[in-house]
Amino acid sequence: MLKAGVLGAGHLGKIHLKLLQSSERYELVGFYDANPEYAQQVEKEFGYKYFSNVDELIQACDMIDVVTPTSFHHDSAVKVLESGKHLFVEKPITVTVDEANDLISLSRKHNVKGQVGQVERFNPAFMAVKDNIDQPMFIESHRLAEFNPRGTDVSVVLDLMIHDIDAILSVVKSEVKSINASGVAVISKTPDIANARIEFENGCVANLTASRISLKKMRKARFFQKDAYISVDFLEKAVEVVRMKDAPETPGDFDMILKNAEGESKQIYFDNPEVSANNAILDELETFADAIENNTRPIVNLEDGTRALDVALKVIENFKSL
Length: 322
Prior knowledge:
Elements: E1 2-7, H1 11-22, E2 26-32, H2 36-46, H3 54-59, E3 63-66, H4 73-82, E4 86-90, H5 97-109, E5 114-117, H6 124-129, E6 138-144, H7 156-171, E7 176-184, E8 193-200, E9 205-211, E10 218-225, E11 228-233, E12 238-246, E13 256-259, E14 265-270, H8 280-294, H9 302-320
Parallel strand pairs: 1-2, 1-3, 3-4, 4-5, 6-9
Antiparallel strand pairs: 6-10, 7-8, 8-9, 10-11, 11-12, 12-14, 13-14
Helix pairs in contact: 4-5, 5-9, 7-9
């Protein structure tokens, strides 16, 4: 079993602590938090071992899970990598792309693995259809959440939209050509609602909307490609795959047939993969253990996290140019 430690015991940090303790792939060594009084309360309530010295915790572990506020990701991750330990870091990977590239360089220098917590890659609905997504040419995503003060220290783009940015980048095998975006700060000091149009070199267009001031929750993405439409509901863990093929010469009584302007007949049929229930955060942590033990590429490596951050920051930069 890999010995694991957690930096940061806030809301998400406590979830990671619970899952690492329950995992059969890790031995939870303990945690560090910058607030000693709070950390001692967590230790007393949950029984996780509190390390008052971050360096001692890092040295006692094989892998460190960084779940601190984003502004501390870089400094915390540097300590981990320079100690030759494997790094799991929550999204967004860092505050700037330069900081992220610094982590990539250090991971290569010390020959250790790094993974970024882009948890929607492990959403069972997305996992069920990702292999069906083949050269999508139009993508639309909506990620709407009710207002919660937690996380408003960063723009809604880095808080919410980055999930969809990462998922889209993982299936569109092309470089970003241009970005147009707008955002509005309604309650917070940073944008609470944003829309971005991302155009790729291969002609694919992605239209993303994210809001943290919605009256209802929604986390959906729709992918349109040649002869297929794929819908992913990240919130309800549901998928819908609608395909089209040439209609048979003699359609059945219940076949759904459409005829286009050119007179070609197409048959519509549904091909919905099974969605298997999982714990996405546990899966991302345990697949990282696989990557470490088998010396394979993490599913969301540091380069992936950096690319998602780069696009997210360019979306935010687009706001300033309005």
